[in-house]
Amino acid sequence: MLSPDSKASSDANDKTPHAIKNVAPAGSEPADLPADVKSFLLKLARQSLEACVNGKPVPRPVNPPALTTQKQGCFVTLTENGRLRGCIGYIEGIMPLYEAVIDNAKNAALSDPRFPEVTPSELKSITIEISALTPPVPVEYKAPKDLLDNIVPGVDGIILNNGFHQSTYLPQVWEQLPEKIQFLENLSLKAGMAPDGWKTSAVKRYRAIHFQEH
């Protein structure tokens, strides 16, 4: 369930998404980030992770790349030996991208309610992935079939909102749940609804650039 401050974990049965790639159809893809900007963000996330786990102040860069100073949603995912270890993010662009990376690296390590806090002894075995998101947009539909026809597996991140029930899956979760109905049913369950809760929910979608440490 999304928290009121737009922070959320995004998983499928607490398993690690295992395809990290930039994917989007022509004409609707998010603008890619240059390699040096990705490297900067990954280094920043690593510094933030190590600082917070060791009880030290997180870094604040003096002159971040211009592309990272724009407000943008993002998630930071931590994996340890191929298994999910934490995933927290902001769906909306509520702060500059570099600040969101700092916050979410810290939050994924210390504040994901599904896991204990990351310990210093784990740092060497943890890999960091960043997902930079496009702004969510509503998906209009009159019947469930319309919704199924208008979402793109492997590309769309989906947000369900039905009263107090909210949840999201990042686009890479399609790797684990490739069928549309299966994907939406699991997302409904994650939100605390019945499996068919997606049929009466407000739906938004977003897209993402995923990149990770080697």
Structure description:
It contains four helices and nine strands. The protein is 24% helix and 22% strand. β6 (157-162) and β7 form a beta hairpin. The chain folds into two domains: 7-135, Glycoprotein, Type 4 Pilin; 137-207, Dna Ligase, domain 1 (2-Layer Sandwich). It has a five-stranded antiparallel β-sheet with strand order 1-3-2-4-9, covered by helices on one side. Strands 5-8-6-7 form a four-stranded antiparallel β-sheet, with helices on one face. The relative contact order is 0.20. The chain has helices at residues 35-53, 97-110, 144-150, 180-190; strands at 7-8, 74-80, 83-90, 126-133, 137-138, 157-162, 165-169, 202-206, 208-212. α1 (35-53) packs parallel to α2. The chain is α+β, with helices and mostly antiparallel strands and 214 residues long.
Summarize the structure.
The protein is of the alpha+beta class and 214 residues long. It contains four helices and nine strands, in the order βαββαββαββαββ. The strands form two sheets. Strands 1-3-2-4-9 form a five-stranded antiparallel sheet, with helices on one face. It has a four-stranded antiparallel sheet with strand order 5-8-6-7, covered by helices on one side.
